[in-house]
Amino acid sequence: MVPTDIPENLSFYKAWSTDYTNGDQNIRILYSEPGNALDANLKSLDIQMTMTDELVTRDSIVHQYKLTPLDVQEVQVRGQTGFTYWTQSGAAGNSACLLWREGNVNFSISLFGNWPPPGESNPHGLDNVLIMIANSLQIVEQ
Q1: Residues 117, 127, 44, 89: is their CA dihedral positive or negative?
Q2: CA neighbor of 49 nearest in space, from 78, 10, 73, 8
Q3: Between 42 and 100, residue with greater pLDDT
Q4: For 5-9, 32-36, 45-49, 85-89, which range has the lowest pLDDT when averaged over its residues?
Q5: pLDDT per residue over 32-77, tens digit each?
Q6: C-beta separation of 49 from 106 below 8 A
Q7: Domain count of the chain?
Q8: Is the model's pLDDT at 142 over the cut of 70?
Q9: Which of 36, 48, 52, 118 is the most buried (most CB within 10 A)?
Q10: How far, CA to CA in Å, does 88 sit from each of 27, 104, 117, 138?
Q11: Which long-range contacts (CB under 8 A, 24 or more apart) does 35-44 make?
């Protein structure tokens, strides 16, 4: 699936697929502002789709490896229950994230870089952008 509606000034950067020995498969698509790809402050959009048996639950989000999700909120996305949260980062600023499951696929959409930063005073300021992107996902025929 690819989004038909992405924030202004973001262009396709790259995509790749990873197969795991347990049978899971991850497809990742990155969009970014024009500029030096190594600049952590560029506005970026990261979309991941993982075919897996692992369910998306509040507990699975709160207990992620090497990640501390803050202010996890339940939302409705594409007719499914999903969760939004934000994470703190020093180098690339804070990130806003949306996770949900459709069928046997877990979806993750993250915004990082020079977006208005989520934080304690406005933790869900980017939720509408995340949900807009999620709702625009369309199947692409190969």
Answers
A1: positive
A2: 78
A3: 100
A4: 85-89
A5: 999 988 888 889 999 999 999 999 999 999 988 788 888 999 999 9
A6: yes
A7: 1
A8: no
A9: 118
A10: 24, 29, 9, 30
A11: 37/13, 40/91, 40/92, 40/93, 40/113, 41/92, 41/93, 41/113, 41/114, 42/113, 42/114, 43/7, 43/9, 43/10, 43/111, 43/113, 43/114, 43/115, 44/10, 44/13, 44/111, 44/112, 44/113
CATH for 92: 3.30.200.100
pTM over 0.85: yes
- Token pair recorded at residue 53: 């048996």
Helix and strand numbers (H, E) in the chain are 2, 9
What the block records as the tokens of 119 is: 């934080």
Instruction: Calculate mean pLDDT across residues 87-96.
Output: 76
Domain that holds residue 125: 2-138
The per-residue pLDDT for 90 is 63
